[in-house]
Write a structure and sequence with these properties.
The structure is a single chain. By secondary structure, the chain is of the alpha/beta class. It has a domain of about 325 residues: Rossmann fold, CATH 3.40.50.1820. Helices cover about 30% and strands about 15% of the residues. Strands 3-4-6-8-7-9-10-11-12-13-14 form an 11-stranded mixed sheet, with helices on both faces. Strand 3 and strand 4 form a beta hairpin. The N and C termini lie far apart (about 65 Å).
């Protein structure tokens, strides 16, 4: 009787439909919700709440529940001070959301999404990451993941690293949350109709970086078969912070909030602080309060306390070295980005505008070193762009994103992994600001088919063909490890002899030699 009553409340009938919304996983029964032709199982905990003594520790197992658990709404987002879906959140936030097609007895390919947000904001429950469309239209299971953010997810401190000899890490809690979510998928996804042998890990920006980190990590071996990194800053010219650097930054943050020292007392003190205090001590300044023009890539502030660090355990090596060494499981991978990666980060929501060439040169010197300024300005002369601010946006897009993407693709292809590179160049409609072009993150509603929910731009009628194309390529890849098929334009694997990549735009076609002269230049720059 209970199931029939619940089924009525969820606007489905009793019988097979109701039964398909009742799924038993390793920690208990969950009751989902019908969403169109898809089944949604939302807000399922994959790890224990990282609160109290569990704060600043690797994720712990979930305590099983005895009564069926409603899984009809996305889980609370992790604590953050800025979000496209609203600030706030809770520490008890380690949830996954699952969208599955109708259960027909066959095992479906699985797509696990890691959201972006610079490791300080975002949520797997954001409405523009909703997996219903992909599940309905393409017969795949979609999983989105929350992971700890900001100081709560990435604050390193020597006191934390000393607490457990078996876990000699500090500050990569958010990355370990993602691994715990992938382990949850391996244990449970078959009960939702998914195939644990065909899991694709995909993500954008911070999620794209995380995807690359797990692709090269032995700790994530066997947890996914394929990977897609969208705008992931993989193999960037700057190495990620070392554990020593991150822990020194963490000690500074701890002192700022009144938790001095490097021993157990400091760790206990940090666990006693409110999330508001910790995040306030590590938040980047608003554009109006920035000391320097140019925004987050050119600031002189301390961001090390909110970023992954190379600890030799969770993150073995800087990604550029890891890709070059090739000591990782060779799996099919898609890697790419958007045409105008840098413009968003030099818009008014992130940065003070760079007003003139004097400030342009000063910003370049801060980031790339004074010795490289003349060469960069010669390659990106102010006179070639509509404004000085657009010139530095192009520098940021190429140096941090586009050429790092090519560098990673070259390394993966050279090491024997099937590699497909792309450039997304479909202009979105109704952008929140004019003049940004195909900006960072603008492909998200194209990928998920969630156009009305994305606050920064629209797919619109003009982008419908590109949306169908990118969804089809992504899903074919998730099902087979090869994006080709169904009569779509050919997408050749990337290699050093042809350097072919796919342009996804109003016209979809292969091109070669992606930004060759510019990326050759950046490959030679030593910051």
């Amino acid at each position: 009787m209970r199931w029939c009553v619940l089924a009525v409340l969820l606007a489905v009938g009793c019988g097979d439909d109701a039964d398909s919304l009742r799924v038993e996983i390793d920690t208990g029964v969950v009751i989902g919700v019908q969403q169109g032709e898809a089944r949604g199982f939302l807000g399922i905990p994959y790890a224990a709440p990282p609160t109290g003594e569990n704060r600043f520790k690797p994720p712990k197992p979930v305590e099983p529940w005895s009564e069926p658990r409603d899984a009809v709404g996305v889980g609370t987002q992790c604590y953050q001070t800025f979000s496209l879906s609203g600030s706030g959140g809770e520490e008890d936030c380690l949830f996954v959301n699952v969208w599955a097609p109708k259960d027909d007895g066959t095992k479906k390919a699985v797509m696990v999404w890691l959201h972006g947000g610079a490791f300080v904001f975002g949520s797997g429950g954001d409405p523009f990451y909703r997996g219903q469309h992909l599940a309905e239209a393409y017969d795949v299971v979609v999983v989105t993941v929350n992971y700890r953010l900001g100081a709560l997810g990435f604050l390193a401190h020597p006191a934390f690293a000393a607490e457990d000899p078996a876990y000699p890490s500090s500050g990569n809690w958010g990355l370990d949350d993602q691994i715990a979510a992938l382990q949850w998928v391996q244990r449970n996804i078959a009960t939702f109709g998914g195939d644990p042998a065909r899991v694709t890990l995909f993500g954008e920006s911070a999620g794209g970086f995380s995807t690359c980190a797990h692709y090269t990590s032995p700790r994530a071996a066997g947890l996914f078969a394929y990977a897609i990194s969208q705008s992931g800053l993989c193999a960037i010219m700057f190495r990620e912070p070392s554990k020593t650097e991150a822990e020194a930054a963490g000690v500074s943050v701890a002192e700022k909030v009144g938790c001095s020292g490097t021993g157990a007392a400091a760790a206990a003190c940090l666990r006693g602080k409110t999330p508001e205090v910790l995040l306030a001590a590590t938040n980047p300044p608003a554009p109006a309060n920035q000391m320097f023009t140019g925004g987050p890539f050119y600031a002189m502030g301390n961001a090390l306390s909110t970023l992954p660090n190379v600890d030799g355990f969770v993150l073995k090596k800087p990604l550029r070295e890891a890709f070059a060494d090739g000591g990782y499981e060779k799996r099919p991978v898609i890697i790419g980005g958007v045409r105008d990666e840098g413009t968003l980060f030099h818009s008014t929501i992130f940065a003070q505008e760079v007003p003139d060439e004097v400030d342009y040169r000063a910003a370049l010197a801060r980031r790339f070193g004074a010795a490289n300024v003349d060469a960069i300005v010669a390659k990106y002369p102010v006179a070639s762009f509509p404004s000085v601010n657009r010139a530095i946006a192009e520098v940021s897009g190429d140096s941090f994103f586009s050429c790092a993407m090519r560098r990673a693709a070259r390394a993966m292809a050279a090491n024997g992994g099937p590699t497909y590179m792309y450039s997304f160049e479909q202009p979105p409609e109704a952008p929140f600001l004019q003049g940004l072009g195909v900006f960072h993150s603008s492909e998200i509603p194209f990928v998920f088919g969630t156009d009305p929910t994305f606050p920064l731009a629209r797919v619109g009628n003009g982008g419908a063909a590109a949306a169908q194309a990118i969804q089809s390529y992504w899903v074919r890849f998730a099902k087979t490890g090869d994006p080709n098929g169904d009569g779509a334009p050919t997408w050749s694997p990337y290699d050093a002899t042809n350097e072919k990549y796919l342009v996804i735009a109003p016209t979809i076609a292969e091109q070669t030699q992606y930004k060759a002269a510019l990326c050759d230049f950046w490959d030679a720059v030593v910051p």
